[in-house]
Structures are given as C-alpha cells and as structure tokens.
Specification:
This protein is 82% helix and 2% strand. The chain is mostly helical. Helix 2 packs across helix 3. The longest helix is centred in the middle third of the chain and has 35 residues. The two termini are 18 Å apart.
C-alpha cells in the first residue's frame, strides 16, 4: 500500500472527478484497487474461510450430540471471526500505509477538509468490506454444506440472510478500524487495539463474573456482532445488536476525526 504512483495521483483524480466528496471517493476507490495488498487481503480472507469452515463446522456438529445437525449459516458466522482480520487489515492500510509512506500530505492537499477525507476512506473501505463480507459468508455456507454432508442443515433464506448480515457487520467493523487507524497511525498499533477490543476484552470482562462488566462484555462489538449475524434474540434483539455495532463505529470514528483534525500530517 506504499506505492507512490497512485498516491501522488490522488489530487489529479479528485479534481478530475469534480472535487468534493464524490471526487474524494473516486480517488480513494482508485487508490484502493491499484495496490496488491487489497487483492491479497481479499484472497486471504477467502482462503481462511475455505480452510477454517470445515474445522469449525465439524467441531460444532460434534458438540451438538443431541442434534441432527448444524446450520450452515451458523458455521459461517463462527468462521468469519477468523477471516475478518483480512478485511480489518485492508481497512487499516487505507490509512496507515499513507502515513508510513508520507503520501498522506499529498492526499490532504487534494482533500483539505479532513472530515470529508475520513468519510471518503470509510465509505470506500466499508463498501468493499460489505461486499467482501457477503462473499465470505457465501463461501462459508457453501463449504459447510459440502463438508458436513448429512449433518448440514441448509435453509436458503437463513443462509443468505446470514451472509448479508456478515457483510453489514464487517462494513461496520471496517469503519471502526479506520477510526482507530486515523488516531493511532500505526499498522501494528491499530491491529493490536482492534484485536484486543474484538477478541480479548469481551473474554476478560465476561470472566470477571461481575454484573456490570458482564453486561459490558455482552455489548462489545464482537458480542453484538454474534447476536446480529445469527439473528438471535438473547440477551437482546438482533436489531438492538445492529444499533450497538453502529454506535461503536460512530463513536470510534468521531474520536479518530478529533485526532485527525487537531494533528498535523
């Protein structure tokens, strides 16, 4: 994501697209697809789904001894927690690669309104994560259907609904990641914070066995994501889970914007 050619072309692309938010989005879209890291992230996510879904599916089937089988959509949801880090890396690099290469100065010259720049990057990464997440969900559903055999429970509406919700979940996680990245500016720092926030903190809070901390753990992004993607209704409804996810994304984006607005490139 550090190739200089596409970054230095950002001002020309933004102006050629008419400037403003549409021009900024067009420039970010061109930059995203002009680097190999985007393709490798998407390929990596697909590979993780292909490799991990059969393992998670067989484990879930073995754990449900009193059940005839396991829903393929549920397998895909559980698998996406591994594959999600490929799209998190893609979203992170939209910001951190420009700070590493120094091309952020050129980008800010093309789009001096920092809120507009942040929105453009978030929209582009969010759309790619939405579509990529749906594709990952469909891969997970398909692989689970084939590898679980007669233990697979397949309902087309439920399976495709799970894939769509996975895309929405990953789009919101992408937005959250960009908010962290714009504040931290470091790839290692961003990945550490997002990893801890998504996977470590909920476990620690849940293990505390203290009412308020357990309550908080159930409202962390991954916990809300599980409820939303599975369309569950405990400990709260899937619609509430979506709102919680959206609030996390908005809050982290707002914090990132404050840092971006006050700091020099």
């Amino acid at each position: 994501m550090t190739t200089s050619t596409h970054h230095t072309a950002a001002p020309r692309r933004a102006r050629a697209s008419g400037g403003g938010l549409p021009g900024a989005v067009a420039a970010e879209w061109s930059k995203l697809w002009s680097v190999k890291s985007t393709w490798w992230s998407l390929i990596g996510g697909g590979a993780l789904m292909l490799l991990t879904a059969p393992i998670i599916g067989s484990t879930m089937a073995n754990n449900k001894k009193n059940s005839a089988g396991v829903a393929v959509g549920e397998v895909a949801v559980n698998t996406v927690y591994v594959a999600q880090f490929a799209l998190i890396a893609l979203s992170m690099l939209v910001i951190t690669a420009e700070y590493t290469s120094g091309s952020i100065r050129t980008t800010l010259q093309a789009v001096p309104r920092r809120g507009q720049l942040l929105l453009a990057k978030s929209l582009v990464a969010g759309v790619v994560s939405l579509l990529g997440g749906i594709a990952l969900g469909l891969i997970g559903v398909g692989v689970s259907s084939m590898t679980l055999g007669d233990k697979a429970i397949f309902d087309s509406a439920e399976a495709f609904g799970s894939a769509l919700r996975m895309g929405v979940y990953l789009a919101l996680i992408s937005s959250l990641t960009i908010g962290v990245a714009v504040a931290v500016r470091s790839a290692a720092g961003t990945l550490t914070i997002v990893f801890v926030g998504l996977t470590v903190m909920p476990v620690i809070l849940q293990a505390s066995d203290m009412g308020p901390l357990v309550y908080l753990s159930e409202r962390m992004p991954n916990s809300a994501g599980t409820i939303f993607m599975n369309a569950a209704d405990k400990p709260y409804a899937a619609g509430t889970a979506f709102v919680i996810l959206a609030l996390w994304a908005v809050a982290v984006q707002a914090a990132g914007y404050q840092v971006l607005r006050k700091r020099d490139a």
